Every structure is written in structure tokens, then in C-alpha cells.
Amino acid sequence: MRTERDSMGEMQVPAGAYYGAQTQRAVQNFPISGQRIPRRVIQALGLIKHAAATFNEGAGVLDADRAGAVRRAADEVASGQHDADFVVDVFQTGSGTSSNMNTNEVIANRANELLGGQLGANDPVHPNDHVNAGQSSNDVFPTAVHVAAYLASTEELLPALRTLESSLAGKARAFADVVKPGRTHLMDATPVTLGQEFGGYARQLALGIERVEAALPRVAELPLGGTAVGTGLNAPAGMTEAMLSELRERTGADALREASDHFEAQGARDGLVELSGACKTVAVSLTKIANDVRLLGSGPRTGIAELQLPAVQPGSSIMPAKVNPVIPESVTQVCAQVIGNDTAATVGGMNGHLELNVYIPVMARNVLESVHLLATSAENFARQCIDGVEANEARATELVEKDLAIVTALVPAIGYDKSAELSKRALEQDRPLREVVKEAGVLSDEEVDRALDTKAMTEGGVIGE
Predict the structure, then answer these.
(1) Is 298 a catalytic residue?
(2) Is 323 one of the annotated binding-site residues?
(3) Which residue from 146, 240, 296, 438 could staple onto 307, CB 3.0 to 4.6 Å apart?
(4) Residue numbers for the site described as Important for catalytic activity (predicted)?
(5) Is 262 an active-site residue?
(6) What does the alpha-carbon distance between residue 428 and residue 424 come to, in Å, rounded to a whole number?
(7) Mean pLDDT of 323-352
(8) Are 52 and 98 found together in one domain?
């Protein structure tokens, strides 16, 4: 152990740790979950500190040696080389100050090591005076969270959702001529095609993509430069735009920009709430789709069985040869977690008291987890389930011929009451509706067959016109 001091006194810090006294104090204060801040937030913090060092060198705050060492250390942080030294629990001070100081201390100590100094000496590079120069936790940490959320959404979530949308759209085309019963209230309804159902699912994904994309401009609006309370105290003129220019260049995210109002940008986290809400809506859509897929694949002999899902693993420890819809089940569990995450993010967002929101770490954790879980589960759903789904055309045909709701197409010709009477008779006698209608003689056999053309029913309009 080594002895360090911060403004509150001495602390014992592990001898080889790159973090320092303030981080160690936070570790002792928050022995909560064992979960640390997300990797993408650490990456963004490293990028921000690198950009600050570049500006501060040009402004004369850092000499070339200090600036170079800080930049190298910040790059190592961004690339993940020092993740083991980011030890503060995610359930910490609500501003993320502990994680910002964790970053400052790791970069300062690594920079001092590069310059021949000793860990814990804070010389020649000081974590506050040099690494944090011109910055505050109150603008840096939420900026890192927004950058992380933006990059995770564009690099992980949106590509995965597009993959799933494409898979569903492909099945919509493949199943375009598979006629089957529609179902409302889980009861038989007029016919649809399996392709129409899958087309609806693909459209849900397309709209989900639009919702995520629509939220990103607000996520890209960054509080950087507001420092402590939004006024920008101690931030030199030109620093914010210089740092943002570097962040845009290094991330490829050209949309990143300074907030138009720093008091909104630090007192509220509405952009993250909006993105979380978009993720929740995607989760709702995926739950509906996954549930429909496993319902349509239920069986194989006593269920609906209009779909055959890929068999990916044995389904039971006691029932031989049983196969379960495990991929859709995984998707729905992810969606439940995402919806729960959104609730906590919503509570966090509404608790921006006065000049600072103090729920930022938990919002970061939840939003980034939601983005990641939706991305991986959407990709997995596409590859391990949807791409391999097959239509059971014989079963669909069998069921649609038994579907009493096809009597609806007779209403324009014979009226509602007569149609209901014939449908009820077919049900009571357990006979095909087509046979019962022909027997009743209300229409010629040709007219009955034309009216009860189930494929034509899927195309709308009045049959036979």
C-alpha cells in the first residue's frame, strides 16, 4: 500500500494502482453492486481528456511533455488498457464525480510514470490541475455518457435492428402466398397471409429504427463547456469547440455538438430519457413479434404449428425429443429488462434538481445496457430464429379451410343473419363451412367457391365484384 492525501486527509491506496486517494475513498463509500461504469463511458472519458490536453497545450496550460504524456495515457484509457483501475461502483455520487476523478487519477499517474515520476506523487502531472484543467465532472461525465450512448446506438443498435428488419422482410416475401387464418382476441378471424404478418413485423422494426434515429440529435447535444453549473466558469474561450472538433474527428460522429443551453444540458437528462423511451418501444415491438412467432410455431402436433422454428437445443431434461422456442424466449426476457431499465431512467430523468441531474451513473448504466441487449438479441433473433423459420403450408391450408370466419365474405351476398346461421350450423355439425353453404342452396356452387376464395379474401374488397 502507499499513502496518499486528498482534501479530506490521508488514504491507503494499493501500491501498484494507477488510481489515487479520491478513487479509493469512493470505493470505500460505495460497496454497492460490484458493477463498474460501462466500458463505453470509460472510452469516452479517455477521448475527452485527450482532447482537453490538446487544447490546454495550445493554450499554454500544459507544456509539451505533460500534454504528450496525458494524451498517451488518455489513449490507453480509451482503448481499455486500464479498465482494471476503474474500480468505482456505478451506484455512486449522482454526478459521476467519482468516476471523473478515477479517470483523472489514472491518467495523471500513468502520465507521471511515462515521465519518470512515481505513482501517487501527483508530480509533474496533477489530476485536477492538469488532467481536469478547464473542466468539471458536471459537464465532462454527462458528456461522456451521451457520447457513449450515441456511439453505442449508431455502431451496435441500429445495425442490429436493420439486420432483423431485413430478415423479417425477407420472410414476408417468401411467405406472400401462404394463406392462413387471421386471429383477433386469439380467436379465428378472416384469412391473412403469413407474408402479411411478417410484413407487419418488419414495419415495426422499421419504425423502431426511425424512433431511435429521431432521438439521437438530442443525445448528440453535449453539456461540455458548462463546467460546474452551466455558466462555463474556468473554461477558456474556444476550449469547448476545439474539444468537440477533436471528438467528432476521432469518433466519426459528426453530429456531436455543444448544447444550445447549458442549463438545460446539465440540469436535465431528457435526451437520455428520450433514447431510453425509444429503446422501450423497440422492446415492446420485439416482445409482440417474439410472442407471435412462438405462438405460430407452437406444437408440433397439438398447437397452431403454422411455423416451424429452427431447433437449436434440447428442450427438456425429462421429456425426450422436446424442442422449445428458446430464442424468442430469450428475446422476451431481454425486452422485460429493457422496459425495467427505462423505468429507472425515467425516474432518474425527472430528478434533475436545480442546476444538476444527480442520477447520471444509473441512467448511463441502464440506457447503455438497454442499447447493448437490444442489439445483441435482435441480431441473435435474426440469425438463429427468423432466418431459419419455415412455413408449414399444409397446416396453414388445413386451418384456413376450417376457419368459420371466412363466412364474412358471404355477407354481401346472403346477409349477416343467414351467414351467422350457416356458420353456427357448420360449427355444431363439425363440418366444413363450404360444404354446409353449398348444401343450403343459397348460392350456386360456383358462387360459393368464388366467394370463399381464401386468397382473394387477403386482398380486401368485396369478393366477386
Answers:
(1) no
(2) yes
(3) 296
(4) 329
(5) no
(6) 6
(7) 97
(8) yes
- 98, 99, 146, 185: which one is catalytic? 185
Number of domains in the chain: 3
128 is in an annotated binding site: yes
Per residue in 23-48, pLDDT (tens digit) is 999 999 999 999 999 999 999 999 99
The DSSP result for 233-297, as a single string, is TT--TTHHHHHHHHHHHHH--TT-EE-S-HHHHHH--HHHHHHHHHHHHHHHHHHHHHHHHHHHT
Is 126 annotated in some ligand binding site? Answer: yes
Q: Annotated binding residue at 95?
A: yes
> Per residue in 235-288, pLDDT tens?
999 999 999 999 999 999 999 999 999 999 999 999 999 999 999 999 999 999
Query: Does 99 carry a binding-site annotation?
Result: no
pLDDT (tens digit per residue) in 193-232:
999 999 999 999 999 999 999 999 999 999 999 999 999 9
Question: Which residues touch 235 (CB under 8 Å, ≥6 apart)?
Answer: 134, 135, 225, 226, 227
Residue 193 placed within a domain: yes
Is the separation of the CB atoms in 327 and 312 below 8 Å? yes
- 189 plus 334 within the same structural domain: yes
Residue 436 shares a structural domain with residue 414: yes
**Domain with 433 in it:** 403-457
Residue 326's CB is within 10 A of a number of other CB atoms, namely: 17
Question: Looking at the domain assignment, is residue 462 inside a domain?
Answer: no
Distances in Å between the Cα of 200 and the Cα atoms of 169, 181, 334, 434 are: 9, 16, 21, 30
Nearest to 464 by CA among 419, 418, 424, 414: 414
Cα–Cα distance measured from residue 331 to residue 385, given in angstroms and rounded to the nearest whole number? 11
Q: Measured between alpha carbons, how far is 227 from 446 in angstroms, rounded to an integer?
A: 80
pTM: 0.95
The C-alpha cell of 333 is what? 426476457
The pLDDT tens digits of the residues spanning 42-70 come to 999 999 999 999 999 999 999 999 999 99
Q: Are residues 23 and 165 in the same domain?
A: no
Does the structure show a pLDDT above 80 at 358? yes
| Residue at which a domain ends, from 359, 393, 427 | 393
- What is the C-alpha to C-alpha distance for residues 306 and 440, in angstroms, rounded to an integer? 31
Give the CATH number, domain containing residue 85. 1.10.275.10
Task: Return d(Cα 381, Cα 285) in angstroms, integer.
Answer: 13
Q: What is the mean pLDDT of the chain?
A: 96
Instruction: Check 79, 316, 353, 444 and give the catalytic one.
Output: 316
β-bridge pairing 390-391 and 356-357: unpaired
Final residue belonging to a domain, choices 114, 133, 152? 133
Query: Are 204 and 289 spatial neighbours (Cβ–Cβ below 8 Å)?
Result: yes
Is residue 462 very low, low, confident or very high in pLDDT (cuts 50, 70, 90)? confident
What dihedral do alpha carbons 54, 58, 63, 68 form, nearest 10°? 20
